[in-house]
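Example record for the data management plan.
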Amino acid sequence: MEKVSWEDTQEFCKRLSAAMGKAYRLPSEAQWDYVCRAGTETPFHFGETITPELANYDGSYIYGDGSKGESRQETTGVGSFPANGWGLHDMHGNVWEWCEDDYHDSYNGAPEDGSAWIDSDLAETNRLLRGGSWGSNPQDCRSACRFSNPRDNRLNYIGFRVCCVPPVGLVAAPVRTVS
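Corresponding structural encoding:
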């Protein structure tokens, strides 16, 4: 989905939650980064560099040892590119994705529990975007790249994904390794 403002995403999550009987919201920046990386520590979940065969961005630019290629100039369908290790598609490029958080210049003072960092509900507060888009240079598609926009912007390179909020009191089972 594209051309949605942060405010539109809030209304969508509200309606989805009511229809499904479960709470849905945008991911926090920390959650978005965690699922984008899918256990990796490289700039992209697929490695050290990016090519237009791996993600939808402006392929006329290169990153690292990557190569130039196609610049599609539009959003592509979900699943057009390889999923990350956890099965999520389009974490790099395609559309910038709104996060729940207000935009902050640095991580100084950010919540340590992965929750969204929201200081105010003022309409003039910029909101956070992650992931890059079809019009981005490859550097902007890195896992660590972040951007901001006014919360009422509806642009053809901005979209979103949602996450389901676990019920209060639900605790994930501990992860056990087998040797």
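Summary line stored alongside the record: Residues 173-179 have pLDDT under 50 and may be disordered.
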